[in-house]
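INTERNAL AUDIT FORM
Audit reference: QA-55
Scope: verify that the stored structure record matches its stored sequence.
Auditor: D.O.
Record contents follow.
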Amino acid sequence: MTSPRARALSAALREVRKASGVGLRELGRMLRISPTDISHWESGARVPRLETVALILGVLRASPEEREHILNLARGARERTWLTVGEDGIPAQMAGVVECERQASAIAAWEPNYVPGLLQTSDYTRTIMSAGDRLGADDVALRTMIHSSRCEVITRRDAPVPLHALIGETGLTEPIGPPDVMAGQLRHLAAMAGRPNVELRVVPRRVGWHPGLMGPFTLFDFADAPTVLYLEHHSSGAFITTEHDVSAYRRVVDWLRELAWSPEESSAFIADLAGEPTKRE
């Protein structure tokens, strides 16, 4: 079974090799290991042993920071549940999400208070990342770039991933950024909602209590692996594969769909907001 942490490990190994300028065949010769095995490790199809990961990092001359980060991923790569904690966990957390998005066969996302990451514009993402001066300019630029590249999984020509996005009304009316940023984001949402692989529904306010009020979550389905439930918080996140929790959150998705406006009503609401981006109730 490919765990969420193993997916992050595969991405980290792939990136450190590419950054070193070493090809798969060349690395295989250096390690006396089959390039096919290395490819399987980098794709997440298999999990390398900790000793093998250390050997790869040594040959590629990874920095001490990269070495510590990747070896930490390797130590728990077979664990089904993965909790990332603290500022040091954010890069790994993001890598895990990106890999889940890249390999998913379908994605269902609920976001009550702002636009889900896969549907954000670069300006909207940059505004969030820059808020409160919690990140430096270089970190903001890097994370904005990563967020922007994520959209490719639902916009690519060949087999775009089906996305079922549920957004709280507050997530569309709260002024996350200045009027021009919000207007651009709303227009982008309207365009994305028109894609055949994207179903976007808005859950209105004042519908009473529902489990979605407890916070955002994402379900990643895979063709050849168990579903991953991802819970995101300010400086931590959890990747969960236990059947009980996944089933519980699938029921939450059904609950929210019943409360939400239809895709047509949701699109009309978004289009109306985009026509008057500064208007708020």
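Auditor finding: record pair retrieved intact. Confidence is low (pLDDT under 50) at residues 277-281.
Action required: none
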